[in-house]
From TrEMBL:
Organism placement in taxonomy: Bacteria, Bacillati, Actinomycetota, Actinomycetes, Kitasatosporales
GO MF annotations in UniProt: protein-containing complex binding
Protein name: NAD(P)-dependent oxidoreductase
Organism listed in the record: Kitasatospora phosalacinea
NAD(P)-binding domain mapped to chain residues: 7-111
Length: 509
């Protein structure tokens, strides 16, 4: 069986690909930039097709020889037109699949209340329903799995739950904390997606199916149970009726890494009771031995993955439609207009390996090694402007790969031990990059840091010159502190290595 997977650089697609390979399928990944697959451990085992579901002309060749196509993309959080964008993209995908003779499309949608008119659904859930309908317009059978909150390390829903519970021992919440929800473990979602490819060619499988875990809980109950499993005290949760979805999304955006643009549609959907109303899929895909994974076990698995630094994919891994994708302008010639640079170099009295560990560990909990208040203010301003802000953090505390999100940057290129290039994803009147380079220099290393900015119009020019006076503090301090941290790590290693020898001499004396 040959499968086409969209969203392979995202949260679910990136986890489904190895499951399909293990099942013996031949896998082709439809991606806008094949380079973003480079560092995935399964890259050599898959084909890459360059295409974009929002650009229909790029789709046709991707379906050649495909039996089953997985539709795992959305434009949630991309702006007020996300419903139209999702609908148009799904229609183009379904038509291209039909032209190529694809046997089945498998789509993961959202669980909806069965008795609620579509017009009263939240924009997010309404878009999920409309996407499934648009995929069917080409005539290819579509198996749609409708799920509610997905519990797994790195999912947006889990990150919201985790950070709200961990950071707020006392919280005043909206009324949706008492809405009933049927969460599902990400492992069960993957199991069902995999099995859906093997469903028979029966008209009865060309439809939407409700899926869910074994328990129905309120969001309040999920937070309390998360607190217990994470070793936290019981949370004090007071719900009030005055918090609108807009206010709630700002509250979630303030406390969690999930930006307001993504938090709002998720929060709006939580006002609906989302519980399975049928179990028809069980006829073709029975529960595994022992049944589906319960909420507590799903949380334990997610926390273990986070603790062991084994988070394979994260909600922020996916690029949104419209994200900047222009390549870094070629040096030294730049014919496309102004390209401003701030360059800092330092010799570091530490081996290149020690310096690289500091460079690759930048951001997230480690911060940016200079003027934390300035970085925090910049992140807050970005959130207010509808951007991702500074708190997306990292997928892994110490390891990066191409395509990883890193606070309000994304890893555009990484050459282990030598180069880390980040592309800015904050709201800017232009394009920006931050490039960090490590080279050997005698018995030490040389650190080179370049901040580059390609302005768009007068607003971009004004932006660069308005922030230029702060570069000495922000970028200069960053270079100094990265060098100092590498030298400090070298000194600590030397002291640790000397300690056993000192101890042995003391014992012999």
């Amino acid at each position: 069986m040959r499968c086409l997977v969209t969203g392979a650089t995202g949260y679910l697609g990136g986890r489904l690909v190895p499951e399909l390979l293990a099942d013996g399928a031949k896998v082709r990944c439809l991606v806008r930039d094949p380079a973003r697959l480079r560092d995935h451990p399964w890259r050599a085992a898959v084909e890459a097709a360059t295409g974009d579901v929002t650009r229909p002309a790029t789709l046709d060749g991707a379906f050649d020889g495909v039996d089953v196509a997985y539709y795992l993309v959305h434009s949630l959080g991309s702006g007020p037109d996300f419903e139209r964008t999702d609908r148009d993209a799904a229609r183009a995908f379904g038509l291209a699949a039909a032209r190529a003779g694809v046997r089945r499309i498998v789509y993961l949608g959202g669980l909806v209340p069965p008795d609620l008119p579509e017009g009263r659904l939240s924009p997010h859930l309404r878009s999920r329903v409309a996407t499934g309908r648009a995929l069917r317009e080409g005539g290819t059978p579509v198996t749609e799995l409708r799920a509610a909150v997905v519990i797994g390390s790195g999912s947006a829903s889990f990150e919201m739950l985790r950070h709200l519970t961990e950071r707020l021992p006392v919280m005043v919440t909206p009324r949706w904390v008492d809405t009933r929800i049927q969460p599902i473990a990400v492992r069960d979602v993957l199991r069902l997606l995999l099995a859906a490819a093997h469903l028979p060619d029966d008209p009865a499988t060309d439809r939407a199916f409700d899926v869910g875990g074994p328990e129905v809980l309120t969001y309040r109950a999920m937070m309390q149970r998360y607190a217990r499993l994470a070793g936290l005290r019981r949370r004090v949760i007071v719900s009030v009726p005055v918090l609108t979805p807009g206010l709630s999304s700002h509250w979630v955006g303030l406390v969690t890494p999930v930006p307001g643009g993504l938090a709002r549609p998720l929060v709006e959907s939580l006002r609906h009771e989302v519980v399975r109303s049928e179990r028809d899929l069980d006829r073709w895909i029975p529960d595994p031995p022992g049944g589906p994974i319960g909420f507590d076990r799903a949380v334990e698995l997610a926390l273990r993955r986070i603790r062991d630094d084994e988070v394979d994919t994260r909600w922020s891994s996916a690029l949104l439609p419209g994200a900047p994708s222009d390549p870094l302008p070629t040096d030294p010639d730049w014919a496309g207009g102004s390209l401003y640079q701030d360059v800092r170099e330092r010799r570091v009295a530490a081996p290149p390996e020690a310096l690289w560990r500091v460079v690759e560990g930048i951001g997230g909990e480690h911060g940016w090694y200079s003027f934390p208040l300035a970085w925090a203010v910049r992140g807050a301003l970005d959130r207010l402007a509808g951007g991702v802000g500074l708190r997306r953090g990292r997928r892994s505390p110490g390891r990066l790969r191409v395509g990883d999100s890193l606070d309000f940057w994304r890893v555009e290129e990484i050459e282990p031990g030598r180069l880390l290039r980040l592309r800015a994803e904050m709201r800017l009147p232009g394009l920006a990059w931050l490039e960090l380079t490590v080279t050997p220099d005698g018995d030490g290393a040389r650190y080179r840091q370049r901040a580059l900015f390609h302005p768009h119009g007068l607003a971009g020019q004004a932006y660069w010159w308005s922030v230029a006076p702060f570069h000495a503090v922000v970028f200069g301090g960053m270079a100094r502190n990265i060098a100092a941290r590498a030298e400090s790590a070298r000194a600590e290693s030397a002291r640790a290595a000397a300690a056993p020898a000192e101890s042995a001499r003391g014992e012999s004396g």
